[in-house]
Amino acid sequence: MSLKSRNALITGSTSGIGLAYARALAKEGANICINGFGEAAAIETERAGIEADFGVTCIYNGADMTKGDQIAAMVQDAEARLGSVDILINNAGIQFVSPIEDFPVEKWDQIIAINLTSAFHGMRAAVPGMKARKWGRIINTASAHSLVASPFKAAYVAAKHGIMGLTKTVALEVATSGITVNSISPGYVWTPLVEKQIPDTMKARNMTKEQVINDVLLSAQPTKQFVTVEQVAATAVFLCSDGAINITGSNIVMDGGWTAA
Ligand code: NAD
């Protein structure tokens, strides 16, 4: 399959799953707009590496996913510099772990903004161009937490349940326009997002690091294995293929059996 004539914008792609999406789509020939925070030199290394490794154009836009106007401007920027946004992956996300009574209000607001509302802004801005060209692929990175809850993750679980409602709604709206809208719901993937929540989970549950990894994280996954970023990215590549045209409004769950239990 080739995505040679396609242009893809991936939010939160300076790290983890987002970077893997960018590299997997570039490998199929798509031009890429990466986004996210990080050290400027490290981001430039990733951007230039995608161009060098795959012979595509790769641009960077540093829009803050808590700011709707910056998200709309990023879509316009990618359309202007790449020619279009044919594939939009709403992926940026953060986590915060705390009992509800201590959950900082600003963390709630930030997680809902980055993990849920940013996808609304991105789709709102990108759908008109996709409709005009009668082709589009929108993929939202949800989570096993779009289907089930875990304690101490109020904002994250609320945002991920919300993103599935948003996915289904937009899928219905654009169903006759050649655009599919789906979510991918991984279980635990070993990325900085997971690594960073270990100290807070140790505190909230009074556990050692090893106990958090084995008794909290991997205990949820019957396979007893972390999902890899490459596996998540391969699913996104499939969703962009012609064979996936009738997959829309779906939640592709890849959680090692977590939500089957
Ligand atoms: P990560 O921390 O490696 O990457 C997060 C990305 O989002 C980074 O590029 C970061 O710079 C960017 N980002 C954060 N705040 C931003 C903001 N305000 N504006 C712009 N960019 C911002 O995490 P990851 O594990 O790769 O997570 C990516 C997505 O996958 C998230 O939506 C997360 O909820 C989801 N997810 C992760 C796991 C997991 O186990 N790692 C499981 C299920 C779902």
| Beta-strand share of residues | 5-15%
Order of helices and strands: EHEHEHEHEHEHHHE
Total of domains: 2
Number of helical elements:
8
The CATH class designation of the largest domain is: Alpha Beta
Largest sheet: 7 strands, parallel
Low-confidence stretches: none
CATH homologous superfamily (4th level) name of the largest domain: NAD(P)-binding Rossmann-like Domain
- CATH 2nd-level architecture of the largest domain: 3-Layer(aba) Sandwich
Ions, cofactors and other ligands present here are: nicotinamide-adenine-dinucleotide
Termini Cα gap: 35 Å
What is the helix content? Answer: 40-55%
Average residue-wise pLDDT: 96
Descriptive overview:
The chain is α/β, with parallel strands linked by helices. The radius of gyration is 18 Å and the shape is globular. The protein folds into 2 domains: 7-189 and 227-260, Rossmann fold; 190-226, no CATH class. The protein has a 7-stranded parallel sheet with strand order 3-2-1-4-5-6-7, with helices on both faces. The relative contact order is 0.14. The model has no long low-confidence stretch (mean pLDDT 96). It is built from 8 helices and 7 strands, in the order βαβαβαβαβαβαααβ. The structure holds nicotinamide-adenine-dinucleotide (NAD). Nicotinamide-adenine-dinucleotide (NAD) binds next to α1, α4 and α6. The site of nicotinamide-adenine-dinucleotide has 29 residues, from α1, α4 and α6.
